[in-house]
Automatic annotation (TrEMBL):
<dbReference type="GO" id="GO:0016020">
    <property type="term" value="C:membrane"/>
</dbReference>
<keyword id="KW-0808">Transferase</keyword>
<feature type="transmembrane region" description="Helical">
    <location>
        <begin position="110"/>
        <end position="133"/>
    </location>
</feature>
<dbReference type="InterPro" id="IPR000462">
    <property type="entry name" value="CDP-OH_P_trans"/>
</dbReference>
<dbReference type="Pfam" id="PF01066">
    <property type="entry name" value="CDP-OH_P_transf"/>
</dbReference>
<protein>
    <submittedName>
        <fullName>CDP-alcohol phosphatidyltransferase family protein</fullName>
    </submittedName>
</protein>
<dbReference type="InterPro" id="IPR048254">
    <property type="entry name" value="CDP_ALCOHOL_P_TRANSF_CS"/>
</dbReference>
<feature type="transmembrane region" description="Helical">
    <location>
        <begin position="181"/>
        <end position="201"/>
    </location>
</feature>
<feature type="transmembrane region" description="Helical">
    <location>
        <begin position="35"/>
        <end position="60"/>
    </location>
</feature>
<feature type="transmembrane region" description="Helical">
    <location>
        <begin position="81"/>
        <end position="104"/>
    </location>
</feature>
<keyword id="KW-1133">Transmembrane helix</keyword>
<keyword id="KW-0472">Membrane</keyword>
<dbReference type="InterPro" id="IPR043130">
    <property type="entry name" value="CDP-OH_PTrfase_TM_dom"/>
</dbReference>
<dbReference type="GO" id="GO:0008654">
    <property type="term" value="P:phospholipid biosynthetic process"/>
</dbReference>
<comment type="similarity">
    <text>Belongs to the CDP-alcohol phosphatidyltransferase class-I family.</text>
</comment>
<dbReference type="GO" id="GO:0016780">
    <property type="term" value="F:phosphotransferase activity, for other substituted phosphate groups"/>
</dbReference>
<keyword id="KW-0812">Transmembrane</keyword>
Length: 207
């Protein structure tokens, strides 16, 4: 919901980070993999309730997730392979963070974490299934031209997800309640994407 406003605001600072990386020959895929390795360390950190350190690696992961795309465009290395790697590792990272909170306090957090993972399956599959279909029909990206895949909007997009992960780390005692609320929002997003995607594909845009 917020991505259409936040993405233009982050482009310039991300470009400032990407330019030096381009000059020393670092590739977008290297940034993607490095960001993932940093981000996945949130899983053990959360399991051991190191919420401050977990927040730091989550922020670094999301920063790298933005830099890799900008670097790809600056260096002319945009590709379906890079986009696939990026989105695939993103979903693994999101799931790892949720699992980390479940491991931190299974009695309190496990059920809410399971619900959120269930909701993530809905948002993720609706996103990727629509991306495959739009690729086949050559439907363009009206609002997010720099995304590797067609970006079907919803109530919970990248900005809302990152904000929620940050709030989880800042207020870990309230994870169960916060995760339940976010799960509801994700399920609404899934419904919106399924409905909107169905009607978009029934009336594809003309090239």
């Amino acid at each position: 919901m917020l991505d259409r406003w936040t993405m233009p605001l982050t482009h310039r600072p991300l470009k400032c980070i990407a330019r030096p990386l381009q000059q020393v020959g670092i590739t977008p895929d290297q940034v993607t993999l490095t960001a993932f390795l940093i981000g996945i360390s949130a899983l053990p950190l959360l399991a051991y309730e190191q919420y401050g350190l977990a927040l730091l690696v989550i922020v670094l992961n999301r920063l790298g997730d933005g830099v890799d795309g900008v670097l790809a465009r600056l260096s002319g290395r945009t590709s379906d392979a890079g986009g696939f790697l990026d989105i695939g590792l993103d979903f693994v990272f999101y799931a790892a963070v949720v699992l980390g909170f479940a491991l931190a306090n299974p009695a309190q957090n496990a059920l809410a974490a399971a619900l959120l993972l269930f909701a993530f399956i809905g948002t993720g599959t609706s996103f990727l299934a629509f991306a495959i279909a739009t690729k086949q029909q050559a439907i363009e990206r009206p609002h997010f031209p720099n995304k590797a895949f067609y970006y079907l909007e919803g109530l919970t997009e990248g900005t809302e997800t990152v904000m929620t992960l940050v709030v989880f780390c800042l207020f870990p005692a309230y994870f169960a309640s916060l995760a339940t609320l976010f799960s509801i929002a994700c399920l609404i997003t899934t419904a919106i994407r399924l409905w909107g995607g169905y009607w978009t594909l029934r009336r594809p845009e003309k090239p």
